[in-house]
Design brief:
Mean pLDDT: 89
Strand content: 35-45%
Largest sheet: 5 strands, antiparallel
Structural class: mainly beta
Number of strands: 20
Oligomer: single chain
Number of helices: 3
Distance between the termini: 31 Å
Shape: elongated
Bound molecules: zinc ion
Low-confidence stretches: 291-300
Helix content: under 10%
Strand order of the largest sheet: 7-6-5-8-9
């Protein structure tokens, strides 16, 4: 059986819209569609430069639509969470009346049999519009726009926020699963290479020195005490999603009697001014309800809340600082 872990990463960002798209997005909030003249053509969506010649187009926009003609389309039978609708729909290139180029949007119909090249569609507006292309909920068959009601933006729309997001699955090796099961029991699982005697943590599946597979029979329990060999004090920058507000330490811990270094661990209850190389520490496990918080840092050990000073005298060894991996 292969285990996997599902991860979602999301990058929020904002972009300035500029003089042309800003007008286009502002008009959307008023349920109006704008194109821009380029010679004897009208481009919609509008751009600041002619995509064919590169010529600057100014900022003089003209109203187009609201109805238009489907030039081409494709059916989306199983939308993902990143699609604009949670039920099957069509993406379509729609040439709005008065425009010479097509706008990409969606058409909300019951099935692909309701779609055809040349069909006439009109926008169905959202009730709440914020100056985004999704102010048009979808296009629907017919000649008449479906109003959303409400008022448009009082100020010009100049910025647009967006969240780029991707969800992916990573397979988890068998040894990592065994290691994580052990840490749920409050144990550190190590794997000792039968050839060179080196010990590894975190469920490593092989010895990189001897290139041999490490199996359950090579498992050993690692000590839960160690010494701090290196550290970084991090002053958190407040970006979206940041949960830390105060400076905090990430430390490297050399486990007693081994060559195992656990990197970038949480150090608990120590003011950042007091963090020192040689400090003796012991593991603190998260209680079941706190597991999420305990695994939230850069720790590779699930269920470990962090490390606490034991109060013993520091280890005085000038070579410790070089032990980071
Ligand atoms: Zn080895």
């Amino acid at each position: 059986m292969t285990s996997t872990v599902t991860t979602t990463i999301t990058f929020p960002y904002k972009r300035s819209l500029g003089p042309v798209l800003g007008q286009f997005m502002t008009a959307l909030t008023h349920e109006r569609l704008l194109g821009i003249r380029s010679g004897d053509r009208v481009l919609c969506p509008p751009s600041e430069w002619d995509p064919t010649t590169g010529a600057a187009l100014g900022t003089d926009l003209v109203e187009v639509g609201p109805a238009g003609t489907v030039e081409t389309w494709c059916w989306v039978p199983r939308p993902t969470e990143q699609h604009p609708h949670d039920r099957p729909f069509a993406f379509a290139s729609i040439r709005l009346d008065g425009a010479d180029t097509a706008l990409l949007h969606t058409v909300d119909v019951a099935g692909p049999e309701a779609m055809a090249i040349g069909m006439r569609v009109a926008p169905r507006w959202r009730a709440e519009r914020r100056g985004h292309i999704t102010d048009i909920e979808a296009f629907v068959p017919g000649e008449t726009a479906v109003p959303g009601g409400g008022a448009g933006a009082e100020e010009p729309v100049e910025m647009m926020g967006y969240e780029a997001s991707i969800t992916y699955e990573t397979p988890i090796p068998r040894n990592v699963v065994r290691s994580e099961l052990a840490t749920k029991e409050g144990r550190f699982l190590g794997l000792r290479c039968p050839t060179c005697g080196r010990t590894y943590a975190g469920g490593r599946g092989y010895c990189p020195v001897d290139s041999i597979e490490l199996l359950p029979e090579h498992e050993v329990d690692l000590p839960q005490r160690g010494v701090l060999t290196n550290y970084t004090i991090i002053t958190p920058i407040q970006y979206p999603g940041q949960t830390e507000t105060e400076p905090f330490a990430r430390v490297h811990v050399l486990l007693d009697g081994t060559d195992v270094i656990l990197a970038y661990q949480n150090l608990l209850d120590v003011p950042t001014d007091d963090v020192r190389i040689g400090m003796r520490v012991s593991a603190v496990w998260a209680s079941p309800g706190e597991e999420e918080a305990g695994s939230g840092g850069w720790s590779s050990v699930q269920g470990l809340a962090g490390w606490m000073p034991t109060g013993e005298p520091d280890l005085d060894d000038p070579d410790l600082v070089n032990r980071i991996c």
